[in-house]
């Protein structure tokens, strides 16, 4: 059964709950905390992006085409369509000898309010560059070229690009490749149905560098390696503004964390984070949760993410204060009167950690 993660009040009373499932796992595999069921299954959606980017790095494609840190970061991100984002994706395509027409992610209005308003003011229509997944797709196109595969087929599950992604996800989730359940994501590539605990373990293993080269078989050569994991983490931490955008959850959380953890949202109320080895968590830590109702409008995820990272000791008082806009939301009526709030549930506020 799902448990309340976030509650919505009206006056002194709780009017609504956002229920879900939350798991935190240490890098060595020990379960640290849980609300709801760790066996609940959800599509990982864009929280998969750091793992989808691993073959781009491990194969040598990123180096072959001279991708710099901010370009690799946007390959791991769900960007806002700001000028810096579209310029980075355009640069990746140019370096690989490709064009916007090669992107097969589709077009949508930029997620960033300022970017969308700028586009409308110019009377321009959004292109595939503005798609929040265009960085990932530019990286996949480059990987296709590097592997000698047709670029037109890079979305297909049977393509060499997606087979490399399947192997990377299989390795980190510890699920046999043939048993991975998948469907089509909003941008057209496969997205994986995994348990919340598997998602948390993936991020725990990523930050703990559990994939030491000596343990990898031939089938993973060019797909994952210790260096590729370190590089993906380092670019996300160095360029948090490329992972989502100004004022957005992933970007502001990683800025507040100052290099201590990576953060990645996914559609339909999915969230995951990987805490690098530190004094509190010497083996690293993986966190994942799913808001069961899909959290349309992001009413619950921001609150749950900040609260859970706080309870896990990842965010201190100073960081929590700087993230107050995400940690709590005041509700007003149409006259502007304060009538309620969105806040962590009692269960999340008192989350107990395993010792």
State the helical fraction: 25-40%
Which band does the percent of strand residues land in?
Answer: 15-25%
Helices and strands, in order, run as EEEEHHHHHHHHEEHHHHEEEHHHEEH
Amino- and carboxy-terminal Cα gap: 24 Å
Overall morphology:
globular
How many strand segments? 11
Descriptors:
alpha+beta; 11 strands; 20% strand; 8-stranded antiparallel sheet; globular; 355 residues; 3-stranded antiparallel sheet
Describe the 3D structure:
- With 355 residues, this protein is α+β, with helices and mostly antiparallel strands.
- It is 38% helix and 20% strand.
- The chain contains 16 helices and 11 strands.
- The strands form 2 sheets. Strands 1, 2, 3, 7, 8, 9, 10 and 11 form an 8-stranded antiparallel beta sheet that branches. Strands 4-6-5 form a 3-stranded antiparallel beta sheet.
- A hairpin with a 4-residue loop joins strand 2 and strand 3.
- The chain is globular, with a radius of gyration of 20 Å.
- The model has no long low-confidence stretch (mean pLDDT 95).
In short:
The protein has 16 helices and eleven strands. It is an alpha+beta fold and 355 residues long.
